[in-house]
Amino acid sequence: VIKVEEPTKGEQGRRASTENASIDSPYFLLLNANKRSVTINVKDERGRQILRELIKQGDVFVENFGPGVIERLGFGYDVVKELNPRIIYAQIKGFSAGSPYEGHPAFDMTAQAVGGSLATTGEAGGRPIRPGPTIGDTGTGLHTAIGILAALHQRQFTGRGQHVEVAMQEAVINFGRIAYASLSLYGVPAPRHGNQSVLHSAPSEVYCCKGGGENDYCYIYTSRANNDQWNRLLKIIGREELVEDPRFKIPEERYRNRVEVDAIVTEWTSQHDKREVMEILGAANVPAGAVFDTKELRDDPHLRRRGMFVTVKHPTRGDFTLPGWPVKMSDSDVPVTAAPLLGQHSVEVLGELLGYPPEQVARLKAEKVV
Fold it and tell me: What gap in Å lies between CA 166 and CA 90, rounded to an integer?
């Protein structure tokens, strides 16, 4: 992946949310591993010509500027496909073409708001809450990658590239499919239920565990498809007399009496730490997940061995630990490398792809073209 940036400061993320404006931010490092950075001044015609030459060599062109920016720079889809008919041209915008909000800017949190994520997150009767994961940003990126891969596969048969468009609003909608099951079942907008399942299951909650810390909880859920997991849970916590209790005998009654269910489960979980709760219930085939914080996950020995967290050497920050890649492939192992410094690979890429000698790149840099 070649990241094209303007030559003076690079993309805004390099200096966003950082404690030291002279070095790249953790935010940037977390989102730009394994990329190569090339600087090109696309407001200079010589810079635009360099980008045109790179496009002719490329397989995929991705942009997520604000609405209309890439077209004003002279690199809209109609222009790029003329330069390279085989290119996959991917665009991410907040809203889709034709939307009444098409020209509006969007960030992760606005996408989550307009995509329905906030409407279903929070306590009943409380205000909408933004979920922690950046599904509006990262989720849209993943949808875009899927579209790009499909287009590359199709190109093997057609020989043609195509235009891939993904709107952040629509990607968030796609993540919320189960909420539309609730809408279909009950005929009203999917409500906020806190930690409860939108399809009315109990138990479905985080339960306080021994320790008293702010994340000393374990999420416990039993399927509403039948009573098997509920009955196993009752056996584990020593409350088998409740198996035939009419208040809990069927899923609908358990949900109706969920306050009592939560009290029963909490009485047991409060005697164990969250890892014990997860281990005991998991071993009995009852779904349970301890609430792990970012530090616990980063320092987890298994996740380190697995490569889900890796430590890389960065030129200015030194050792930096970041999440790796969760997809493991039997015949493709790509080590994680640190995010690039601004323009770190300009000489390498322009030489490799366009045949520019180092002295030519140096001259273009002095003239603020790259």
Answer: 8
Q: For the full predicted model, state whether its pTM sits above 0.85.
A: yes
Q: Which helix (H) or strand (E) holds 325?
A: none
144-203 pLDDT tens trace: 999 999 999 999 999 999 999 999 999 999 999 999 999 999 999 999 999 988 788 899
Active-site annotation holder among 24, 137, 216, 262 = 137
Compute CA 298 distance to the chain's CA centroid, rounded to the nearest angstrom: 17
CATH of the domain at 153: 3.40.50.10540
Residue 272 sits at φ, ψ, to 5 deg, of -135, 150
Q: Do 344 and 255 fall into the same domain?
A: no
Please say which residue of 274, 297, 320 terminates a domain: 297
d(CA 163, CA 78): 9
Distance in angstroms (rounded) separating the CA atoms of residues 96 and 143 = 14
Number of C-beta neighbours around residue 1 at 10 A: 10
- Total domains, the chain: 2
The SS3 assignment for 148 reads helix
Rg of the Cα atoms in the chain: 26
Concerning whether 44 is annotated as a catalytic residue, the answer is no
Give the domain CATH number at 210.
3.30.1540.10
In a domain, 186, yes or no: no
